[in-house]
Amino acid sequence: MASSDTHHRSDRAHWLYFDDAHPGIHPGVGAEPSKQGQLHSADWSEPGTAGNQPAVGSHGQERTEELESALAELSDANESLKELNTVDALTGIKNRQYFDTIFEQEWRRATRQKYPLSLLLLDIDHFKRVNETFGHLAGDECLRIFARAAWDLLRRPADIVARYGSEEFVVLLPYVENDNAVMLAEQVRSAIADRTIKTTDEFITITCSVGVSTANPSEGDDRKDALAAADIALYEVKASGRNRVSNAGNLTVEPAVRENQTS
């Protein structure tokens, strides 16, 4: 058993210091030594303990934060680039590539969930004449105002308006029945006809023609048929006077036709 004196000394605070006269580290007892180079025993720890591990430098932490910030900026830039690739540069609305992608997705979803999809195809009447009479800058302004007028009438996030051709636009209306689609088409047509477009030197009035179609997609149906029906309805308007809405109605696929498609 250790002596009481030894036990008493072990409870005292002790210091380690360098002795110039006697090289080596010597324990000291009692008052804190005043010599330079002194080391408190608390500065020493057993191997493998936290005190024996190197601390992470602030420089390394800063570099990590800088890298995370750079990656976040790169991700934001990629998202912005994707967004730019879906937008028509002139009008600021979605472009045909975006419409084609979303239309395919909506068609598949409507097939699974059994809801209607309506389409509007809109074309500015006599647009070539506008360009020839007032110039291409005036024509560009007409396209921008037309796009904005159509966009302003859409109230739901699911509705899509996109530039489909030079002076042609398309509107996709998920969950919209045919009669409501016709009503919206008439609202767009009327809004355009009632608007006067001011250019630098001229006031221009334009009109538009609209073709409407609605489909309740089923397995085996082709979304291109819905577009073709709206396009035929639009052609009929243009052939009979323009500035009107033509409705192709609800598209149906006869059972016999569907059987032939799936056989």
Automatic annotation (TrEMBL):
Residues 26-67 are annotated as: Disordered. GO terms for biological process: cell adhesion involved in single-species biofilm formation; negative regulation of bacterial-type flagellum-dependent cell motility. InterPro entries: Diguanylate_Cyclase, GGDEF_dom, Nucleotide_cyclase, Rev_trsase/Diguanyl_cyclase. GO terms for cellular component: plasma membrane. Transmembrane segments: none annotated. It holds the Pfam family GGDEF. It catalyses: 2 GTP = 3',3'-c-di-GMP + 2 diphosphate. This is diguanylate cyclase. It comes from OM182 bacterium MED-G24.
